[in-house]
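Example 3.2
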Amino acid sequence: MKLEYEAWKELNPNQDFSQKEYQQAIVNTRAFEYESISDSQKYKEMLFQMGAIVVIAGVTLICPLAGMALGAVYGAYELS
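Structure, written as tokens:
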């Protein structure tokens, strides 16, 4: 924390904060962002869904029948 304060002091020489005031300010800011397990799971699901859509679209462009079949399988998967 002391090294952080010294680096901050060098970058902001016109600010008049003591080290104790700096510590209190850092503790009270959003220095830590909480990510819950459900947030992480929702992010992974979103990436999976986006990847599936890209793959289905790519396959549909190359071979429309296979793309339709893959889309139907993915749709059934999403409904279940």
